Amino acid sequence: MAIGTAPRYQQIAQMLRAAIANGTYKVGDLLPTEQELCEIHGISRHTARDALRLLSDAGLVTRKRRAGTIVAAPAEPVLFVQPLGGFQDLLQYARDARLTIMSYGPAPENGLAHELGLKPADWWELRGQRGTGTKTVGLTRVLVRADCAPSKAEIEARPTIADAIEARYGIAAARIDQQISAMVLDAMLAPLLGSEAGVAALRTRRLYHDAKGVLFLASESAHPADRFVYSQSFTRERAE
C-alpha cells in the first residue's frame, strides 16, 4: 500500500465532495466557479476544471453553460462509522463489516510480515475485502501466527478472526495497539475498491497481543476517505 500525495485536482474534488456530503452545498446549490476555485485554493483553471469534472463524472453535479456547476445529488453517506471508545469498539469493524476472503496461506516474503519486521515463515497472511451489504468499505491484510492459524472455514464461521483463534486455540487479545495514518490509493488497490488511483484514504494497523504480551495477530486495512469515519466524543470533566 503505497503512500503518496494525491494530485491537486483530486484533493479539491474531495473537499467539494465532503462539502456536499455535510450539507454545505445542497441539491440545487451552485458550487464556486472555476475562477473562484482558482482564487480560493491558488490553483490553475485547468486544475479547477478537472476537479469539477470528477464530481460531474460521479453524478454529483451538472454543469450548464452560463448557469454554472449545480449540485445534482447528495454525496453518498459514509458507509461505516467506527467509534473510538473502549476495547470492544475496536472489534466492532471486524464484526460488522463483512469479510470476503480473497486469499489465505503462508505469508509471502514481500508481504505485511516483511513490512512489520516479522519473519514471514512464522506467519500466515489473509487478504480480503470488507463491506456492508453490496458496498466495499475497505481492503484488509491480516497476519496470523502460523502456530495458531485457524482454517478458512473456521474464520468464515466466526464474527472475527480473533474469535476464530480464541475458539480453536484459547488465545485471546489482551491488548490491541492501533495506528491510523493517511495514504492514497495506488493503481493496484484503487480498482479493487472501485475507486480512482490517487484518492485519499485511511490506513489502520492493529497489533493483537495475548495475556503474555506476545503478538499473535496483526491487520492492516485501507479505507477510501468517503466510506469510513472514526468517531469519538469527549465529555468535559469538572475541575476539583
Task: Give a structural overview.
The structure is a single chain. This protein has 240 residues and is an alpha+beta fold. It folds into 2 domains: 8-71, Winged helix-like DNA-binding domain superfamily/Winged helix DNA-binding domain (Arc Repressor Mutant, subunit A), CATH 1.10.10.10; 80-231, Chorismate lyase (3-Layer(aba) Sandwich), CATH 3.40.1410. Helix content is 28%, strand content 32%. The chain has helices at residues 8-21, 34-41, 45-57, 87-96, 112-115, 152-156, 161-169, 189-192, and strands spanning 61-64, 68-71, 80-83, 98-106, 123-132, 135-145, 175-184, 200-209, 215-224, 228-231. It has a 6-stranded antiparallel β-sheet with strand order 4-5-6-9-8-7. Helix 1 (8-21) crosses helix 3 (45-57) and helix 2 (34-41) crosses helix 3 (45-57). The longest helix has 14 residues, at 8-21.
Question: What attributes characterize this protein structure?
Answer:
Chorismate lyase, 2 domains, alpha+beta, 240 residues, six-stranded antiparallel sheet, Arc Repressor Mutant, subunit A, disordered N terminus, 10 strands, 8 helices
Approximately how much helix is present in the residues?
25-40%
Described by the principal axes of the CA atoms, the overall outline is elongated
Distance between the termini: 47 Å
- Count every helix, treating DSSP H or I runs of 4 or more residues as helices: 8
Write the CATH fold name of the largest domain.
Chorismate lyase
Spans of 5+ residues with little confidence (pLDDT < 50)? 1-5
Structurally, the number of domains stands at 2
The string of secondary-structure elements, in order, is: HHHEEEHEHEEHHEHEEE
How much β-strand is present in the residues? 25-35%
CATH H-tier superfamily of the largest domain: Chorismate lyase-like
Class based on secondary structure composition and strand pairing: alpha+beta
With strands numbered from the N-terminus, the spatial order across the biggest sheet is 4-5-6-9-8-7
The CATH class name of the largest domain reads Alpha Beta
Q: Biggest sheet, in brief?
A: 6 strands, antiparallel
| Average pLDDT taken over every residue | 84
CATH architecture label name of the largest domain:
3-Layer(aba) Sandwich
- C-alpha-based Rg, rounded: 21 Å
- The count of strands amounts to 10
